[in-house]
Amino acid sequence: VQSPALALMTFPAPADGPAHRLADATAPALRADDLAATRGDGIFESILMTGGRLHGLGAHLRRMQRSAAMSGLPEIDVDAWAAAAHAVAAEHPAVPELMVKLCYSRGIEGSGVPTGWLLAFPNGDVTRERTEGADVLLLERGVSSDLADRAPWLLLGAKTLSYAMNLAAQRHARAAGADDVLFTSTDGLVMEGPTSTLVATYGDEIVTPVPEIGILPGTTQERVFAWARGRGMRPAHVKLPVEQLASADTLWLVSSGRLCVPIRSLDGVARRFDAGMQADLLHHLTTVPDGE
Ligand code: PLP
Q1: CA of 90 to the centre of ligand 1 (A)
Q2: Would you say 60 and 47 are in contact if contact means Cβ atoms under 8 Å apart?
Q3: Is 195 in the pocket of ligand 1 (CB under 6 A)?
Q4: Which of 41, 122, 219, 235 could form a disulfide with 59 if both were Cys (CB 3.0 to 4.6 A apart)?
Q5: From the CB of 71, is ligand 1 less than 6 Å away?
C-alpha cells in the first residue's frame, strides 16, 4: 500500500524559508497528547486535485480561516498553507484524482502552539455513486435551524476534526442498506449530508440550503452554481422545507471528494435524474479551472 505524502507546518513560521517541511508519513509525526488526538479539537479541509489543479483552493482556505475563527484557533497564513498544499501534492505520485487534506489542531495540551499537517493520497473510487446515484436516508440532526446563531459553542457549520457523529450517521445508513444521509433540522428544514451539501433543481432554478441554519458553506456547491449560471439557470440559497424535496427535478449531494452524486432514492422512494446533465456537471467539476 502506497503511504500518503506528508507535510508538517512549523509555528511560528521561520523568518526565512517555507512554513512547511515534507516528512515521512510512515514515521511518527503527531504527539499522543496533541488535542487533535485526545479531543478532536481542530479543523480540516479536503481538497481535490485533478489535472494538476487543486480545485477551489482559495475557497477552501477562506473556509479554513472561518473554521479557525469559529473555533478560537490562531488565524492561519493562507499563503503558507497554499504553498504547503502544492508541495505535498507534488510529492505524491501522479494519480487521476488526488485528495489533499489540511489539518490544524489546538496543538499539544497546554502549549498554546497549534499543530498543522497536510496529507496527499489517492481519492477513493466513487465511480458507481457518480454514475448510478446514491440511496439516501433522511436522518434527524437534532438541532433547530436557528441554533447556530444562539449557540456558537456548538461550532455548527465549522469543519472541525470531530467527525465521529458524521461517520456514525453514514454507518447507520449503510446498515439500513442505503449509501448516505441527508440531515434535517428539528423545525423541518433540509440541512446537509454528513460530508456533503445538498443541491436541488426546480425547472431552471437551482437551490441549496443557506449556511445560516448551521451547515458548512460548500465549495463544490459554489462551483455547481457557477456551472448552472453558464446554463442560464438561476441559483439561490434558500430555507428548504423537507416536504419540498419531493417536487425537485434533481437532487444532488455534492462534495470535494465525490463531486456530484445524484440522489436516486430518498427514504426508499425512487427518484429520477438526468444522466446527460449529470455527465455534463461531472465533466465541468473535473476539468474546468475555477480561477483559483
Ligand atoms: N458539509 C459537510 C458537513 C462536509 O463535511 C462537506 C465536505 O466534506 C461538505 C458539506 C461539502 O463541502 P465541499 O464541497 O467544500 O467539500
Answers
A1: 24
A2: yes
A3: yes
A4: 219
A5: no
